[in-house]
Amino acid sequence: MGQSSLSEGRAILADVGVHGAQSALIGRSAELDRLTAVLDSAADGLPGVVLVGGDAGIGKTRLVTELAERARGRGFDVLVGQCAELGDALPYLPLADALRGARGRLRAELDARPVLGRLLPGGTDPGQETTSGLTQQQLFGSVLGFLSAQPVLLVLEDLHWADQSTRDLLVFLSRMLQAERVCLIGTYRTDDLHRRHPLRRVLAELNRLPSVTGVELAPLDRAEMADYLAALGGTDARVIGEVVDRAEGNPFYARELLDAASDGCSMPDGLASLLLSRVETLSDSAQRVLRGAAVAGRRADHDLLQQASGLDDMTFEDAMREIVSRGLLRLDGEYGYAFRHALLQEVVYNDLLPGERTRTHTEFARLLTLREGAAAELAHHYLAGHDLAGALAASVEAGRRAERLGAPAEAHRHFDRALELWDRVPDAERLAGIDHVALALRSAAAAADSGDNHRAVSQLRRLPPTAEVNERLAYFLIDTDDLRGAIAAAHAAVEAAPGGPVLARALATYARALYRSDRHDEVEALARRALETARAAGAADAETGALVILASLAALADDIPRAKDLLARATAESSGNLAMDLRAIFHHARVQYENGDLAEAAATADRGLRLADDTGLTWSTFGTDLRFLRFLTHYVAGEWDQAEKVAAGFGIRVGTPAEATLSSFALFVEVARGLPVVAERLSWLEPFWSRDVMARYMGRGLAAEHALWHDDPETALDHVEAALAALPPDDPAVIRLSATALWALADLGDPGRAAEADAFLTRARVPAAVGPGSVRQGPLGPEGLAWLARAEAEWHRAHGRHDVESWRAVVEAFDFGFVYEIARSRWRLAEALLVSGDRAAARQEWELAVGAAAALGARPLGAALTGLGRRARFTSARPTLLTTREQEVLALVAEGLPNREIGERLFIAQKTVSVHVSNILTKLGVSSRTQAAAVAHREGLL
């Protein structure tokens, strides 16, 4: 790439510069084709991300500009945002920059999302400060919903300057875009990525994703460079030759060198010298303004820049006209300017004398103190101007603003900077408006909110061990699974708490820590005390937390009415803390679900999801947990179309344990429907099976079922054994896994493995006798009891016995509303009845199972029932295997029509026809369309 000669048909981009010259997009046809392919895939619903790297000026922006033109021609809306070299001072700056370009339908979609509107100029902050960490997910969820509305090309330029939150957003979108018509392009400078640059890790992580395409622009060769300079208007062969030699394949360098030569400037040995030589041709007033713009950053506000320059209106406008005409600055929005190239801003800034730089930063800081919402910029200028007191105060305010904008990483960075300055600034507490411990607590909370609980713990351990510090320390230690440390810290918090809200929260956290341990006998007294203290102190969040713990204890004691009553009280009114509200709603729905009240659980989960969706918190912790639960209620209740729709949002291309757990849930419906996506999802999940217990249990357990539907019981047993190895013997999850293993052993039909079957049944019985959910710690719910019944029935089958009563008990056990498991159990019950000689009863159970399988779209079960029906000669009921749409497709298949014509007749996509045909072949037990047509005619299915 970049070494081939210029060939006919290469894309040319007309780029009218300040002199009206045209620049050519030369030597980039292969790269442009790769970007266009991703764009076209996005138009078809397969989103993609392209990361375009290269040295400064290598042609990244020109390449992306051409892609943007192609995107507009294909009906895409195009949004372009640029990062600025301000570090983490302004979170989400490129997103805000891109959103400013929203027009038409995109603008209407943006106006409907006030969360995003806060990022725009004039946008209002969220109404209430929070350290819950949910506002980042709120923003991310809103961005994803905003992009989902229509085909969008989103370009984020100069990611080497991106702040932490923007990098987080880039990772989030790269992983979560699954079916949206979105093409995301990010550009970055490879020559700016030093060894410890934070973007390096992000690039390494994202480039492993199949949805991400990496494109690195190499220097142009000499022939391409010469053609490029000629397209720019170069006519002097000598000048062109010198520029080609010195530009070393960099189009930006070449253009700047050519422009400098055209202006009569000398041609220095380096790019910085060249750029400064162009600056030196400006008038004194223009140079003064440009130096001020360089201190302001990549962009400068018109009024602010004029005030900093000290020039009158006329002189300033003449200076700006001169600068813009030379192409050094360009108009940016209605009231601002931006450096045409970031390198120009860098070299001008670096050319300033130290005292001049400090004075200018100080002047900008003075001017910014008169403006609202400029805390982050103020902190930047104060620090650069060596005003430590101003930097401390501005950093604290910038941290508060970052919290409100949902940027916890930036909030932590600002707070941490203030803490670093604390001992160097006299009267720091008065300047910060907060004491040192409170600021450290806030910084730790921001660290935890950004996902760094270990950093939060480390920061808190350096503080005096007050009650409030220990309570927060215990809370974060629970989240890092350091239960022993959490219990010790929570106990210390309770002992030291003076009373009021601090004591209420300490008691609630202590109860939460002990609930996670085996000291359940101490939890209720603590929770009751926390409840009383919270009510007396007016600590609504602690009150809600205490109610949740008491309800969980009631559920363990099988006092479900009391548990529901406590949770209803916990969710009746907002606690003022959305995280706590969602937690309470989730536990309410969980208790309902675990006790077989599917309709109630669905309604409660829907309430929580509406709350999360209305506030943009779909991707928050409990917003995600509620989606898990809602998916399960859809799945259990037989609402599989809805379940599959939810599962489609559980990303396949996972990169973290949390994402892997979420993805594993999708396997329930995908395995049961026999969807092709199962293999791909399992391949992405496999690396996490050794790293995360939940991902291993869910993923390997359902991989075992997948193997069983494909007649591979030995592989199923391998998966079960591996999943069981990660679980304690008394975990209720052991019951389902053991039942699956007994299914595999029964399918093997090897009498020599009877002892193995006995061992699995013993393992299934352990959680019901001694573990969580047992009689000792609360009885198993309906589903746990049903799986235990399934294990008992499969054990009989593994011993060569088809026990009718055992399978009838399984059907009854799942009859709390688990549609699929009832059908699967009827399948085995029909087999047992046939063996017993009760053909009529067997046929009745078989027909009920066939109807359920067809309604659910459970292809593997449907195929198994087809086989059983064929062996039992239950052929007259075969039509009920096919859905109405499948019967329509089968009729056209029998006419000999190809999928394309079938799709045209039925007004459905050709891909959808292919899925229906595959289902028909499976259900009819045939391998070709011809055989399907023959069966259809022979058995009257048409």
TrEMBL record:
Secretion signal, residue range per the UniProt entry: none
PANTHER family cross-referenced by the UniProt entry: TESTICULAR SOLUBLE ADENYLYL CYCLASE, TRANSCRIPTIONAL ACTIVATOR DOMAIN
UniProt keyword terms in alphabetical order: ATP-binding, Nucleotide-binding
Pfam families assigned to the protein according to its UniProt record, in alphabetical order: AAA_16, GerE
InterPro entries (alphabetical): AAA_16, P-loop_NTPase, Sig_transdc_resp-reg_C-effctor, TPR-like_helical_dom_sf, Tscrpt_reg_LuxR_C, WH-like_DNA-bd_sf
UniProt xrefs under SUPFAM superfamilies: C-terminal effector domain of the bipartite response regulators, P-loop containing nucleoside triphosphate hydrolases, TPR-like
Protein name: Helix-turn-helix transcriptional regulator
Stretches assigned to the HTH luxR-type domain: 875-940
